[in-house]
Specification:
Elements (H helix, E strand, L loop, with lengths): L2 H36 L3 H18 L7 E3 L4 H11 L1 H20 L3 H4 L4 H23 L8 H13 L3 H16 L12 H15 L26 H27 L9 H18 L4 E3 L1 H9 L6 H17 L8 H15 L2 H8 L4 H13 L2 H20 L2 E7 L5 E9 L4 H8 L7 E11 L1 H16 L3 E6 L4 H6 L42 H27 L7 E6 L6 H4 L7 E6 L14 H14 L3 E7 L3 H7 L9 H6 L4 H10 L8 H17 L3 H8 L4 E8 L4 E5 L11
Parallel strand pairs: 4-5, 5-6, 7-8, 7-9, 9-10
Antiparallel strand pairs: 1-2, 3-4, 10-11
Length: 737
């Protein structure tokens, strides 16, 4: 036995076998309940569990997903059984599996993820409501009606005529399911569904209650082989596609969800869809329910510590062994207990967590419409209604345009248009633009990713009319030059433009588009001087940023209360607010060549850094002093060269004397000859040395010792755009003078 085989065997015995037993205990009662809700023989649920575990587990693409009969498909199966009969429903399941197999082979799995999760969650919630309403009648001793509305209308009479023993068994089952999660961890090792059914069965047997026992007609030894359904072939094809798509989408979404529960291999969705198709073909051929990936069993598998698909396969083996050897024990379970289990499952399928998720994306209407349509119209109708509403909302979002217009303090008007400009947004667009007074100076920002001809004509006509009345319109396109290209007569392509690099304040001037393409600067024209760029930048600040930060700066105008003193290099590539994600009022900043902190009493004297330290620690009361160095520092290169690189800069030579301690530390710690990494190593040591230099100031050292001040070292690697924390020197000695 090789080493890898031995390790895999040990891992299976340690993790996968115990997990498979947990999933087996969860799967048996759920499979029986789903078969009961589907109007199918109870053995069909066990067959689906066996096939889902062994076939889908072996051939699927997910590491720990568990497949079997799914509650979300029970309404479809119940309708098919009533329409075509059970054996014909098995054939529909087989054909649906063939469709899934083909879709997987043609690598169409990713397309299934395009279905809105709000539709899926709404569908499952609607199925849960229907299951709960129908099975509640069985708990009360009656029979479910044909529709959810009929179940609701019949419920008062059913409550009035309810039978004592059946209600007691159902209530006992629900109470055990509800309270089981609050019991100690050792007790909860037994799955709640199994514990609830055991409690109900034992109680009914001890007290000899008059309850209905489970009927195991159509057991595993009496396989119901499929037959071709009779009826309109259009409806049969629709039924096959419905089962294939619903089971496939539920399985794929479950695979994606399960991937977040473990750290192993990610799911291959096409392989998973192929495995699901093969499992449904086998399940249909053997007389089982449709198979899909099930989140309840998959979650139990992950929480039990499963590592590989062996757990899912073994769970199917255990179900098979149980059905063949101990199937007679199922007859002890009261039907009312199974119905109560289904009521509990149905209520849990209305998941408030899903509602909160879709609410954050404005998709609650899709969820509610899908759920209501499933309850009152049917599963297929509900899914179609949800998909239609989701498509309409997506179309609305894609074509929604935001227009914001405000008057600026300098009597200019600022208009901002965002979104996709199509003919649908023209009425609102023209209404908002006409509200700008004639003759006004207007700055118009177009942050759009598409503009059709109707939208261009609306903006262009308004602009021409506004300029005829003496006004001015300065158009700035932030995303792409749709207006500029249309105005120049260039050909417009219908596709939306991909997101371009956004123009933000942190981009260098050379990386920004200063003018539209149709106003491009001729190549022979010299670049604008720095003063002009600063003026343009100030104007851009007034237009874009000032309105956003004015409330904050108005508040800060009274007093500054920074929490950090930030000492860094004057290098133009180091932007403190950018690399620390800080804003106005956060950092009290000192910048100099080499981010140096002169030691107390060092020559030459430098009162500017000392004054900043004193003011920050004794007046502003900062909590942290940060020294930030960076890669490729020119000052450190000057130190390494022994002053050669600063030979013609006398001021630089004098200033770099404050870095001699850093150079000495570096030489002392260097091992072997200096190489290409020496400069960056010195840059890092320099940060640590400046932290030690700070401790030479008595007030700083006292506050550090008292825990009122923290010294932090940062190192900014420019090439990788990463900020690293620098630990203090291993032998820091404070010198208080």
């Amino acid at each position: 036995m090789t080493g890898d085989t031995h390790r895999n065997l040990l891992r299976t015995l340690r993790y996968d076998v115990p997990a498979s037993l947990v999933v087996f205990l969860v799967a048996v009662p759920l499979s029986l309940g789903i078969a009961m809700a589907s109007g199918a023989p109870l053995a069909a649920g066990l067959i689906a569990a066996v096939v889902g575990g062994i076939v889908a587990g072996s051939l699927g693409g997910s590491a720990i997903q568990v497949s079997g009969p799914a509650a979300g498909l029970s309404l479809v199966v119940a309708d098919l059984v009533q329409t075509y009969g059970w054996r014909a429903t098995c054939m529909i399941t087989l054909l649906a599996g063939a469709v899934q197999l083909l879709l997987g082979l043609f690598r169409a799995a990713r397309a299934a993820l395009a279905v809105s999760p709000a539709v899926i969650h709404g569908m499952l919630a609607g199925v849960g409501v229907v299951i709960a309403l129908s099975q509640l009648h069985i708990v009360l001793g009656g029979s479910p009606q044909r529709s959810a509305l009929a179940n609701v209308m019949e419920l008062p009479a059913q409550v009035a005529a309810m039978h004592g023993h059946t209600v007691a068994v159902g209530l006992l089952t629900i109470v055990v399911l509800t309270l089981w999660t609050r019991l100690p961890k050792q007790v909860k090792a037994v799955p709640a569904p199994l514990a609830a059914l055991l409690a109900a069965a034992v109680t009914a047997w001890v007290f000899r209650w008059d309850v209905t026992r489970v009927d195991l007609s159509g057991s595993l030894g009496e396989l119901a082989f499929p037959v071709l359904p009779n009826g309109d072939w259009h409806q049969i094809v629709a039924a096959v596609l419905l089962v294939a798509l619903l089971a496939g989408v539920e399985s794929l979404l479950c695979s994606v969800a399960v991937d977040s529960m473990h750290t192993g291999r990610r799911a291959d969705l096409d392989q998973e869809l192929t495995g699901q198709g093969a499992a449904n073909m086998v399940a249909g051929a053997l007389g089982g329910l449709p198979v899909a990936g099930v989140i309840v069993r998959s979650t139990a598998n992950a929480q039990a510590g499963a590592r590989t698909r062996v757990s899912a396969i073994l769970h199917g083996v255990w179900v098979l062994v149980f059905a063949l050897g101990f199937g007679w024990t199922i007859k002890l379970i009261p039907m009312e207990a199974l119905a109560a289990l289904l009521v509990f499952i149905g209520v849990q399928m209305v998941n408030l967590g899903h509602v909160r998720k879709v609410h954050g994306h404005g998709e609650v209407p899709v969820y509610m419409v899908t759920m209501a349509a499933v309850v009152f119209l049917g599963l297929a109708e509900g899914v179609l209604a949800g998909l239609a509403l989701a498509a309409l909302l997506a179309l609305r979002r894609l074509t929604w345009v935001t227009v914001k217009i405000r008057e600026m303090p300098d009597r200019r008007w600022h208009a901002s248009i965002c979104g996709s400009l199509t003919f649908l947004g023209v009425p609102r667009l023209t209404h908002e633009l006409r509200a700008i007074p004639g003759g006004a100076a207007v700055d118009l920002d177009l942050n759009i990713d598409f503009m059709d001809n109707a939208a261009f004509e609306a903006i262009h006509s308004w602009r021409l009319g506004h300029e005829r009345l003496g006004g001015t319109v300065d158009i700035d396109e932030l995303h792409d030059e749709w207006y500029a290209l249309a105005a120049s007569g260039a050909r417009m392509f219908p596709a939306k433009t991909p997101p371009a690099t956004p123009e933000r304040w942190w981009l260098p001037w050379a990386h920004r588009r200063r003018r539209p393409a149709w106003q491009a600067v001729p190549q022979q024209e010299a670049p604008a001087p720095a003063e002009c760029q600063l003026t343009a930048g100030a104007r851009e600040f007034h237009r874009r940023t000032a309105p956003l930060v004015r409330p904050i700066l108005t508040e800060l105008a009274r007093k500054q209360q920074p929490t950090h003193l930030f000492i860094t290099c004057a290098d133009s590539r180091v932007v403190p607010s950018l690399i620390t994600a800080s804003g106005p009022g956060d950092l009290f900043t000192v910048r100099n060549i080499g981010n140096l902190v002169p030691r107390k009493g060092a020559e030459p004297h430098d009162d500017s850094v000392v004054a900043a330290i004193e003011y920050a620690t004794q007046v502003l009361g900062v909590h942290t002093i940060t020294v930030c160095g960076h890669s490729g520092c020119g000052a450190m290169a000057g130190l390494l060269s022994g002053g050669v690189k600063a030979g013609s800069l006398p001021g630089m030579r004098r200033w770099l004397r404050h870095g001699h301690h850093s150079l000495a530390r570096f030489i002392e710690s260097a091992e072997g000859p200096l190489d290409s990494r020496a400069l960056d190593q010195l840059c890092r040591v320099n940060v640590q040395q400046q932290l030690e230099n700070l401790r030479t100031y008595r007030k700083v050292d006292e506050q550090v010792r008292e825990g009122r001040l923290e010294l932090v070292g940062l190192y900014f690697d420019i090439g990788s755009a990463r900020v690293h924390m620098m630990p203090p020197l291993p032998s820091t000695v404070s010198v208080r003078i």
